[in-house]
Amino acid sequence: MKNDVAGLKEENVLALLPSVVVHELEKDVQEAWVRAFDGSLLFVDIAGFSSVASKLQKFTNEGAEALSFHLNGYFTKLISVVRRHSGDIIFFSGDAMMVAWAMPLPVASSTALACGAALLVETSEYTFTIEGEHGTADITCTMTLHIGSVCGTIHGMLVGGKG
Fold first, then answer.
1. Which positions ≥6 away from 135 have C-beta within 8 Å?
2. What is the C-alpha to C-alpha distance for residues 112 and 100, in angstroms, rounded to an integer?
3. Largest CA distance in the chain
4. For a FRET experiment, which of 34, 66, 99, 123 has its CA 20 to 30 Å from that of 131?
5. 22-47 pLDDT, tens per residue?
6. How many Å apart are CA 15 and CA 162, to the nearest integer?
7. Which run of H or of E encompasses 143?
8. SS3 111
9. Distance (Å, rounded) from C-alpha 36 to C-alpha 120?
10. 55: alpha, beta or left, given left = phi > 0 and alpha = psi -120 to 50?
11. Which residues make Cβ contacts (< 8 Å) with residue 86, sequence separation at least 6?
């Protein structure tokens, strides 16, 4: 791998990638691949996002900025818990994320369930208040979590390759 990508240091770019991708890049793979491995997946979805977005849009001109600020704050707390449990964030999609543990099943399933439980205990509800504009009342918004977990054989793939 080159030492920098688009002016970014390699270690900064690698820190943003799932570890399974980093391992494949270290092997200098030149073509597409499919890999099967044992592990667990945890899907974490922020519930209430759409209603909060709608409420904020009607309430303030800065609704999108406020929502983005608080969504980032919530994700920061979620990511902290995931990292503490050695989870590998595979992707984000709007108000959701997928986390993986590529390890033997008894350990992977226990770790994923422990992470899910910690997420529910520590971050199951995120409440914030936006001050009203021009004499309107403040608005309080709450987001919660939906979490699903599965374990077994996971198939990962890289479509394409270098160059």
1. none
2. 8
3. 61
4. 123
5. 776 777 667 777 889 899 999 999 99
6. 19
7. strand 139-158
8. helix
9. 30
10. alpha
11. 101, 111
Distance (Å, whole) CA 140 – CA 129: 4
Helix (H) or strand (E) holding 3: none
DSSP states along 10-58:
HHHHHTTS-HHHHHHHHTT--S-EEEEEEEEEEEEEEETHHHHHHHHHH
Per residue in 49-67, pLDDT tens?
888 888 777 766 677 788 8
Q: What are phi and psi of 135, to 5 degrees?
A: 85, 0
CA distance 47 to 94: 12
User: What is the dihedral sign for C-alpha 119, 92, 87, 80?
Assistant: negative
Report yes or no: 72 and 94 within 8 Å, Cβ to Cβ. Answer: no
